[in-house]
Write the structure tokens for this entry.
Amino acid sequence: MCRMLGIAATAPVSPRELLCEAPRSLRELSREHADGWGLAIRGADGWSIDRETVCAALCARFANLADRQTQLLIAHVRKATVGPTSIANTHPFRRGHFVFAHNGTLADVPAIAARCSTERLAEIEGATDSERLFAFILTRIDATGDVERGIALAVRDLHALGNVGSASFLLSCGARLYGHRAGRTLFMLVRGSATLIASERLTDEAWLEVPERGLVVLDAPTPISIAA
């Protein structure tokens, strides 16, 4: 299992509390999920992706990056289940303006890979099931020509396979942040100008649980459920 956090805000916010200072910050959770970390931070010039294979709690670079203000962020700490510890297997993954992080282990990776386009499979760099799931979703975005419809179609097709295992994910197109829950918990919190989504309640605030198989778009300041 892994842990992940997404932030979508109408004005720049600091992720430091949730990354480093909260009772269950990602840095604290990384002590049990110590196989690497990654931060995708959206700035005026696009995405900045930083990844390391060390435990976030032991990495000064992770703490330094937590001071960067942003309106859009995906953060991830990894506990390796599929694929060795390496940069290529460290989330978040990026394809153009799309960024993706996954929490869980898929039950039938070959079935998912078989339903990906040749072009999207060719982009895979590592050995994780997560990159195959990313390719699966992007294949449907490509086919529909629309991000929201493509993600909704991907979720429908994914669950039509039967037992998919655990496939909770965060995905951003650079403008919006999407979250899906399948087999692993996912929670949301609206806080001022920001909407937060995380694999568990990172603070003692009243986080709302995303229902199993729920698909939401965090178009700050109000999250919206999508019929998948």
